[in-house]
């Protein structure tokens, strides 16, 4: 967003969910409120577009500068730090450099690993692995050159970032196949994700984790993160003492929609690294 300093946040209207409470705080006030209950607070982060810049090659991404050091420093200060992503847990583990004390929720919560422990897969999703493998092969055979097919064992992502002109064609093909096979679709930033028909999303993950928490922040950049924002709003509606803060990371594709649903916006993954580093003294 031109004209805004790196690392600074601005106030935007929060998601309107009827009578649910909003968070009338600027960034400094939000961190001060969090500091009073840091040991009860969970910090949630999406990965792509939030902790790491989006890349033309989704296998080539890496966290922005200062992000890994900030997460490592935050983990012992708050109740939990959790990454909630469309990526598989193994991918997250590799790209986070083996950080200790971080919980990983992959594939929208179909997989999870707590503090470096074993990866646990949602049992209802496992029978769909062969279907996903066959769908990936079919996509590679039928979709035009320029489409990147990412097979994630429990899902298939169809990317058209390097060939934007293919977007409508790729999305139409993906939705037709999902309907034929009884699968679900999740739209994203120049990508369509095809998933098993298992009732699992980021909002459900957040809802489960924050039930007995005193506060939570969620940092995200894409439309799937709005469900996570809504889960924090719902938790705050049931407990006025709960401090929930929704932060959007700006981007030129879905940034406006996500920012409108958030309490605060931040410029980029690099700015997020700066912001988290600057926030540490507040929590300590």
TrEMBL record:
<dbReference type="Pfam" id="PF02358">
    <property type="entry name" value="Trehalose_PPase"/>
</dbReference>
<keyword id="KW-0479">Metal-binding</keyword>
<comment type="similarity">
    <text>Belongs to the trehalose phosphatase family.</text>
</comment>
<keyword id="KW-0460">Magnesium</keyword>
<comment type="function">
    <text>Removes the phosphate from trehalose 6-phosphate to produce free trehalose.</text>
</comment>
<dbReference type="InterPro" id="IPR006379">
    <property type="entry name" value="HAD-SF_hydro_IIB"/>
</dbReference>
<dbReference type="InterPro" id="IPR036412">
    <property type="entry name" value="HAD-like_sf"/>
</dbReference>
<protein>
    <recommendedName>
        <fullName>Trehalose 6-phosphate phosphatase</fullName>
        <ecNumber>3.1.3.12</ecNumber>
    </recommendedName>
</protein>
<comment type="pathway">
    <text>Glycan biosynthesis; trehalose biosynthesis.</text>
</comment>
<dbReference type="InterPro" id="IPR023214">
    <property type="entry name" value="HAD_sf"/>
</dbReference>
<feature type="region of interest" description="Disordered">
    <location>
        <begin position="1"/>
        <end position="23"/>
    </location>
</feature>
<dbReference type="GO" id="GO:0005992">
    <property type="term" value="P:trehalose biosynthetic process"/>
</dbReference>
<keyword id="KW-0378">Hydrolase</keyword>
<dbReference type="GO" id="GO:0004805">
    <property type="term" value="F:trehalose-phosphatase activity"/>
</dbReference>
<dbReference type="InterPro" id="IPR044651">
    <property type="entry name" value="OTSB-like"/>
</dbReference>
<dbReference type="InterPro" id="IPR003337">
    <property type="entry name" value="Trehalose_PPase"/>
</dbReference>
<dbReference type="GO" id="GO:0046872">
    <property type="term" value="F:metal ion binding"/>
</dbReference>
């Amino acid at each position: 967003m031109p004209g805004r300093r790196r690392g600074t946040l601005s106030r935007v209207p929060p998601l309107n969910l009827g009578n649910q409470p909003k968070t009338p705080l600027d960034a400094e006030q939000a961190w001060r409120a969090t500091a009073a209950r840091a040991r009860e607070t969970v910090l949630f982060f999406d990965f792509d577009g939030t902790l790491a810049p989006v890349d033309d090659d989704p296998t080539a991404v890496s966290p922005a500068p200062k992000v890994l050091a900030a997460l490592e420093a935050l983990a012992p200060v708050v109740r939990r730090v959790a990454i909630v992503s469309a990526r598989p847990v193994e991918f997250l583990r590799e790209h986070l450099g083996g950080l200790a004390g971080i919980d990983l929720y992959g594939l929208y919560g179909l997989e999870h690993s707590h503090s470096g422990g074993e990866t646990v897969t949602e049992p209802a999703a496992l029978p769909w692995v062969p279907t996903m493998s066959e769908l990936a092969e079919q996509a590679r055979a039928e979709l035009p050159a320029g489409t990147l097919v990412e097979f994630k064992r429990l899902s298939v992502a169809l990317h058209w970032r390097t060939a934007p002109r293919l977007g409508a064609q790729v999305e139409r093909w993906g939705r037709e196949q999902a309907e034929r096979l009884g699968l679900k679709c999740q739209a994203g930033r120049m990508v369509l994700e095809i998933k098993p028909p298992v009732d699992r999303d980021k909002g459900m993950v957040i809802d489960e984790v924050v039930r007995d928490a005193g506060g939570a922040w969620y940092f995200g950049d894409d439309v799937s993160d709005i469900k996570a924002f809504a889960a924090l709003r719902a938790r705050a509606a049931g407990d006025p003492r709960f401090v929930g803060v929704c932060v959007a990371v700006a981007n030129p594709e879905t940034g406006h929609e996500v920012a409108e649903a958030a309490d605060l916006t931040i410029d980029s993954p690099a700015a997020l690294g700066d912001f988290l580093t600057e926030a540490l003294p507040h929590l300590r």
